[in-house]
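#dry-run=false #mode=assembly
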Amino acid sequence: MHPFSYSRPTNVENAVQELAGPARAKFIAGGTNLLDLMKVNVEQPNQLIDINRLPLNTIDELDNGGLRLGALVTNADTAYHPLVEQRYPLLSQAILSAASAQLRNMATNGGNLFQRTRCYYFYDTAMPCNKRQSGHSDQSAGVGPAGCGALGGYNRIHAILGTEASDGTVHCIATHPSDMAVALTALDATIHITGPSGDRTLSIGNLHRLPGSEPQFDHTLRPDELVTAIELPPQGFSDHHIYLKLRDRSSYAFALVSVAVGLEMDGDVITDARLALGGVAHKPWRKPEAEQLLIGKTATKDHFQPVAEALLDGAVGYGHNTFKIDLAKRAILRALGLASQKSERAKEQKGE
Amino acid sequence: MQTTLPAPTVESAPAMTRPITLTVNGTPYQLNLAPWTTLLDALREYANLTGTKKGCDHGQCGACTVLVNGKRINACLTLAVMHDDHEITTIEGLATDGALHPVQKAFIDHDAFQCGYCTPGQICSAVGMINEGQVRTVADVRELMSGNLCRCGAYPHIVDAICEVMQLDASK
Amino acid sequence: MSQYIGEPITRVDGHEKVTGQAKYAAEFNVPDLTYGVVVSSTITKGRITLLDTSKALAVNGVIEVFTHENRPRTAWFDISYKDQDSPPGSPFRPLYDNKIKYNGQPVALVVAETFELARFAAMLVHVEYEAEPCDTDLMKHLDTVRNPEPGLMNLMKPLPPKPRGDADKAFAEAPVQQSAQYIHGMQHHNPMEMFASTVEYGKNGFLTIYDKTQGVTNSLLYVTQAFNIPFNQVRVVSPYVGGAFGSGLRPQYQLFLAVMAARELKRSVRVSLTRQQMWSFGHRPATVQNVCLGTQADGTITAIIHEAKAATSQFEDYTEEVVNWTGKLYPTPNGALRYKLKSLDIYTPLDMRAPGGVTGLSAVECAVDELAYKLGMDPLEFRLKNYTERDWTEKDRPFSSKELRACFRQGAERFGWSGRNPEPRSMRKDHNLIGWGMATGIWDAAQVPARAEATLTVNGKLRVRSATADIGTGTYTIMTQIAADTLGMPIDDVVFRLGDTTMPAAPIEGGSWTASTVGSAVKSACDTLAKTLFRMAKRIPKSPFVGVGFDDVLFINGEIRLKRNPSARVSLLEVVNLNGGRAITETGTSIPNLVAHMKYSRNAHAAAFVEVQVDEDFGTVKVTRAISAVAAGRIINPRTARSQIIGGMVWGISHALQEESVMDHRYGRFMNHDLAEYHIPVCADIHEMDVVFVEENDTVVNPLGVKGVGEIGLVAMPAAIANAIFHATGKRIYELPIQLDKVM
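#status=ok
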């Protein structure tokens, strides 16, 4: 770990100003991913701005029936919040499937979105990695050789979708490791951002990006911006949802493949559908046109299969991870089947 | 073949230390720490509270679990300077007036450890879990204790010990 | 008297462990301590062409950077670097020269005033290499394996026996044949405590070394030889070890580096390895095994061929006993057991819990299951049909005791095996296929020499000491029990100390031999002390023991009593008082009875029964229920022994389903070198587990009749799980770990 200076602003304006300063500064909230990466020399900020005292730590109901999750609310407090449990159980499930109770007590909603890939080659500065090369999200000098070690290497946990740049070349097959972001993608959350030039919002689908030829950029936030909140729209799919996560052990492991599903049902007929995949791409993977295939259909396996095929269309395996293509399809079928049944909580609430 | 790693940027002088006070187990510890000292290293190397263990230093094992304002966290992935106004509880602070905390006693009774290295983290984690109030079943205990690795494989006895304290039927 | 032996006493070190008072190697915060951080090589083979430490040294607070260029002189000959667990060859020497022999090799040690400074400066050490192509993949060299170099180690881990009959011919002619190849990758011990040595630099250069080790004597010998220091200038202390599983059988390089730095700097130094660096020394080697079994139509085995190929380093020939177990378990007129090695650009492998045993049995016990299916026999029935009372790998000698039949019977009963439908895919629950599998386990009941010392203290308490270790095994507790019973003392008046080279010497703690080895030494020391105390009691004025022989008295409740008249008694405190208030000490040595041992094979046995649930779509496997029935001689403490067996079973689940250190052979580097990606079970992976200790009386193995329980709980589990997965799914999987993609 390199030395750094430490500051602890108490209002958002000061925090953003400090970030815009000359130093290679980074915000620290939960710290669970940043300090991990600093210890292995992948991240080298020379200033840490502790934002834990900023007033961004509440969960508030919105007039439109939605919910606003403060960026600094911890993952645990979010998952166990009565309104989240009640209206957005898909989000609770996803958060609680991630990491450990200790880490969820530390990690914040904002930080969760910006955790970096678990690619072995990214983490090991002796190994080639294109993502570790300098980029605006990092600002630090490139660490270690360029290239992609995972291509042709050990890539069990790597991406199968969206890996190609526009010219057909592949520069990075890392995945985004967040479970929460997958659920937020299915829920179509909106990200609130502030920066020196004011506030703006982004759809969660536009926050993260595919690697293309610039894999050093995980997301589209500008270097001087701060996420202040995550807004959940009113539609929470509390009756029909599932977060299904498949991994190499029962808990405390990152997803090989995960599926977030939210359905609206009218009897046996699906009237609205959302699907997002985790563990398969550089960002949570969603295809609205695949979701459209479900509308007006009954919840049966033969209606699910085309959705799985559509979501995995164009998937490419790189050897160790090729099994993910089939696994993801099977997971989609199972998840849609499970979500089409009414959730236990929904049954309880309706006295069924 | 020539393999060369680019030289890292040289920093100026390492970060300066500053006096900070950590309140651990109700006792204020006045320490001189640089920002880069983790809470775990502050406890072990500066406050001489070595009951909290370092098992990986990367949040992947849970051996460093302590309670901060009653909540269990991994002390290895947080900076000491971030906690100058918090109440920190470590394994050394669980017994009161010489009497073991019920979880500590249950761990002995159920032989819920072997080498003992993950044990302080397991116990702090169990205490934190009980505080959280999210456990309904034994399956919940197993899931919510999964952030604490035990290489000796004492899990069945750890679960038995916690179930006894929580008055849960461990066979279900 | 057996008041405590056989009783489930709670761990005597429990209080220290649950309160955080138990101190491990990196927790002795001696005054004026400095911190060393190791810089590791990033290439696998080649040489260092440039090592620029100037930027590291320029950091305020950095004291020194040690490299091969400035290291002090150490011993010249290989022999000085050999330890008690060295395989044949030339031991690795840290910072010896510019040659790189394996990836992760230490190339520099940065010593600074604080840990954080050392860690930072280590990142500033600039190393350039000239790399050569490396060769690390055993699978590419299966045709060029060779016989291992024999060595002293083979006394404990014998090489394969001579073949019997003509196994190739008998297999070719067998009416029922089973042949398959079994593969597993490398694994690392990964105890929860990372390797560390704290070296306290004392007056006149006296070194007190707090080391993570399975044997302080081993560390002491290594340090004194490598650095040519007199024995009386070093003390090695290790009261608590945060797990080891074999990784502490050899002194690791942090010990060498910490001692070197302390001597050069004349300062106290601590060197702790990082979790990533826990992949930079010994491991369980990858093996490829071929097992061929032939039987008659009735299931009688007529041919066994078991061949294992394993990887070792370029500098030492590490071997395991992989194939011999097959011969010890199954009788055959024709048997060929072979074990071959290939030297690769990796570090020397190192015994890891049940070394060789779990490897070999994971293959042969799956082969046996598959063969039973071919014969249409129940796998348990097949094993009973081919049960042996003699060990053909050791000149057909009998076993000193073998209650494996009882393991089968009691385990099967507890599990409900008789209700099993042999048909694969015959049980299911929702999306889950359910399967039941079983397998046999066997491990050595070894004993080696050891010493102990027993002291009756001035206040009439018993203090026993031996320089052994407790790596979580329960040594503290069971030795206290043995001592208390031998001298008839209340257990609260007995204290056992270990892990200090000022104590009588004991061997490294491994091979499940500590209960038998140190236990026998403790018994011997206490027996000798008892005789001395009795002699002294006879000299007490008006002693009730005048004219009485040692066999006529009992030691009970802190007193010596006449058997035929218990009111005739002398308290041990009186004896001390008679001694002028001075403590009374005796030492004891235990040496295995080699004459008796030569006549018998001495083994612990087990049977594991397992239920799995396999998700038929995803291939995820959950071990929902497991029972081990264990015959391991006398069980000193059923509570700690049960923990040992359950721990072994958890390791079995890990070995079968999760663990593997994956190397990128292009670079010769382990890629999943952390606990997030090197998977070992978490609490949620472990469900119902049970242990049955089968009564077994053995008068040959050692005076206590104990066989050890450190490894026997592990060896049968992986095969039982793989067999259960077959029963659930109808699919045989020959490569461990069985991750979901291999099943789906």
